């Protein structure tokens, strides 16, 4: 039996609702193999949680739903999200499964090796009954990723149910493909996420992820092909090559903001948080891409998943590097 992280009550629906897995992270702070006495950093991470943090830092209300263990790691995650202004009213502490764990070893200066301990643990036990349908229906955006449906049958059902509830209520549905080969095959991901695409309004993908659904080719044509599968808007994340968005027949291109990359982990989720925050601002697509690129640049410049995401008052710090401003 699970119980809420907080006593529940009437809470206004946040602008963004997301659901998924959050895990404790033990990361090396210097290059080299894991060994006794190696300097380590304790933290937490999760794709959807990172998006919620980014949207919150950029001035919009955000809520995260998921399960963590009834343990110190779970308490750390929920406290961290609350400290970032993220609503965790819908989060659950699960006394029957511990919080998942990620180990990050910086084996060499430019090679990261990651190990996940998540199978059967709290995050993968997310289920449709954990969702607050009223809060989803009252949100402006529901954001899901391809990680959650890959975790377990119940987590898949939760993601699919959340999309159905949002769609029925006219809530904008955002999907980041976020394919993880360690969780499922490309064929399975294409089948499951392909069923969600017609019910989404906005899809994010890298070129290899887009190729799960459409023929490999030039990024613009791949994005246009994605929009023919249902989403009105398709955004391709191109890493150091920037990003592009196709919507309403128009293609908008944005170069990356040049910075010194320190840690690439979480950059894609930071990019998504900027894009969705600008969407909630009511900004046009070029401004969404601009804010997304800035958030991605901030993220790769700082160690950690979400730690480097900027507050709105900090955006000017990279203005000189944003050559297309």
TrEMBL record:
PANTHER family xrefs: 2-DEHYDRO-3-DEOXYGLUCONOKINASE_2-DEHYDRO-3-DEOXYGALACTONOKINASE (PTHR43320:SF2), SUGAR KINASE (PTHR43320)
Keywords carried by this UniProt record: Kinase, Transferase
Gene3D superfamilies noted in UniProt: 3.40.1190.20
Transferase is among the record's keywords: yes
Family statement drawn from the similarity comment of this UniProt entry: Belongs to the carbohydrate kinase PfkB family.
Pfam family, one: PfkB
GO molecular function, one term: kinase activity
Protein's name in the database: Sugar kinase
Residue ranges constituting the Carbohydrate kinase PfkB domain according to the UniProt record: 16-310
Keyword Transferase belongs to the record: yes
Entry-linked SUPFAM superfamilies: Ribokinase-like (SSF53613)
Superkingdom in the source lineage: Bacteria
